[in-house]
Queue: 3 jobs
Job 1
Amino acid sequence: MKPRSFAITDIGMKRKVNQDAFLKDEEAGIFLVADGMGGHRGGEVASQLAVQIIRDFCISNKHLLPAERLNQAINESCDQIFRKSAENEELHGMGTTILALLVENGEAVLAQVGDSRGYL
């Protein structure tokens, strides 16, 4: 039986905007959760950017070892989010947490930025 993954997000009862983003790409072995920083402008933009940038980087840089690839992908997402925040006053200060899992050849690499946690 092939392993399956599931994902869901819920805005909860306190916020008006859902700043969560996630990705589950079983074929590429990439699983991400990004939780935009609530109360800050652009949290939903930051979380969407993080998911897209990390996914794209991991897929296009398969020549790197999984841990190195995931680390560089997260750093690239942080750099791009910071630049976008600096370029656009409406997004100034935006940020997101990141929880990323990269599964390849029976091995898993887990990375985390912020207070989103992963459990085994």
Job 2
Amino acid sequence: RVSRTHCEIVVDEHGYLVRDLESKNGTSLDGLRIQGCYLKPASVIGIGDVLLVFLPAEEQAQVALAGADRFGKLVGGSLEMRALFANLERIATQDATVLIEGETGTGKEIVASEIHAHSRRKGAPLVTVDCGSIAENLAESALFGHVKGAFTGASADREGAFREADGGTLFLDEIGELPLELQPKLLRALEAREVKPVGGASSIKVDVRILAATNRDLADEVRKGTFRQDLFFRLDVMRVRVPPLRHRRGDVPRLVETLLLRSRPARGGAETPRIADEVLAMLASYSWPGNVRELRNFVERYLVFTPTGVAGAVELLSGASPGDASRAEQPLLRLDLPFKE
């Protein structure tokens, strides 16, 4: 009477959330059928004919934290980032496959780069394949290579990403975008550690470590039928999640300082401008839907226009220049003020 993946309980900042996963006969909470609802102690969850009593244990979870507030190019003194750094320190030295999750703009590609840089393969290539930008008809060739004459336009042999990364690391960015028909071939390559070029007669052994990143919930994509379950489990050996910037706003001032310092070579070593404390406070209160990428864009605009106060900095958040005529009649949204004000 219970679906294979019937429901799940996840923990967020509000508590314990039980969610039905499109099960055949539904999930109930205290006798009422639900799609999703927060639990309280002694709540009764119904799945099929089974009743489960929810009793959270009163215990303290011990989370390992890194002693440093950076891991290579990754910066952050928040608990979320120090926990991430502690995981990366362990994971980097192993050869296990890693699945990197996180919203767009959180820096998943930098996490992959630092895992490689701290691994025993750091002297070998790190090859990146953006699965979301490859033309569907060229994806197999991009990954596995092809031989001359394999198809129209194949005027020479091509090694492909797996062979280019031989001895090193292959980073499959946005793996959730990989076409469904190519996923069985990728699974075989991961299992056998060998690839067969398009039009080739034999397979070629490769020695690569696999890192994959996604901004999608791959488990949900499996349920929808857009991602193979066996490939998901093959990738989900080690999993790390990069927290969104809104969950670590205390890191914003340090990130701004780091981005300003990194911009000095491009500015010919010019003195780094100082950002006023009230502007930093406003930035720390902003929700950053574009995450660190949006913050980096803001810093680049700030270096061009160097606004003198909070009002000008708020305008820069939208991409407009301070005093832009197109925004002159729009009310100023003071993100540094409490919601009530």
Job 3
Amino acid sequence: MNEVNHLNGKALFVASMPFLNEKNIGGIAIMKRNYALLCDTFGKTNVDVCVVNPDTEFLKKQNAVPVNWIEGNVRGLHRTVNEFMGHNYITANGEKELKKIIKLDYSLIWLDSPQYGRFAKYIKDHCSSRVITFAHNMESDYIKIYCKPSLKKPHYYMKIRGIEYNEKCAIECSDKFICISPRDKSSYERKFGFPLDTIFPVTLSDSFKESVECSSKEPFFLFVGTYFMPNIEGVKWLAENVAPKIKNDIVVVGRNMEEILVDTLPHPPANLKVLGSVDDLSEYYSKAAAIVMPIFSGSGMKVKTAEAMMYGKPIVAADEALIGYEVEHIEGIYRCNTPQEFINAMNAVIEYKKYYFEDIRKYYLENCNTEQLMKKAHQMINELIS
């Protein structure tokens, strides 16, 4: 990252969850990336951080960077009441505290979610700061994965309407509204009728040191994902449709994924091994024959796809897992959407016995490496605040 030629001024980074001392997984990896973009542009000491969280426990772990705590809503009835009063994700007290902070003399305020569109509007009405909003997903679509409004759950309609209002405010009042994929950009434009011009796709800092061939005498397939609905559905789908029809093991790793053995798969197939949380994913990526991604729902882009590419691994993935990646005709990437397509592709990987592809690694280096995005972000912010 650039250590010189920082822009003058200060920036504020408003995060939707604790991220500084968490593992680089999923949305947290992109949150860390976005924070690093600001630090690279202004200098780390000139970037303040606000984190929205229901309690202050996480502050005990944030010993490297001072963090301003913004009180977030607690799940359950308390959150529903707050949402009914118009306080989405942040309590009334949390909103007051955030309003005090954003009135300080910041050149730029980065809202790392369109959930905080109301604050983009408040900033425009009360401050001279420039505003960037980054959308990890199309939030109003993303939340529907969890919330299916019905007569039994009418408050979900209110939740979704609140998110849509914030999205609209974020698009109207941000100096830059950044989407993570062309699909999300098109969806936001169709829904709200505003043209958008900036996409920051999934990128990761390169942590792969050397190419490591699969060393196992019995090659295994790897599924990576946290305990989250699309991942839960994907592992369940593998257990029911694929694992019983292949000989090789499928190893499942990811934060809290072991919980799937309690509530979803108490008796998985013998060759589906759920390890759950692990300390170091790199060993599993390096030794796997291929990465399997039966992801059929979601929004944004999948970080695990870029991560697999960083390791040069063969990828067997559904369309959803490849959204935002232009990977047609790259050897070693198999696009599959039916059980038989997954089975055929996985058998082909084992038969081919090639578990590392230079072209896949090259795609990561040219399209998914954070170093390439740093220059673009620095130029964009420089033009914005000049």
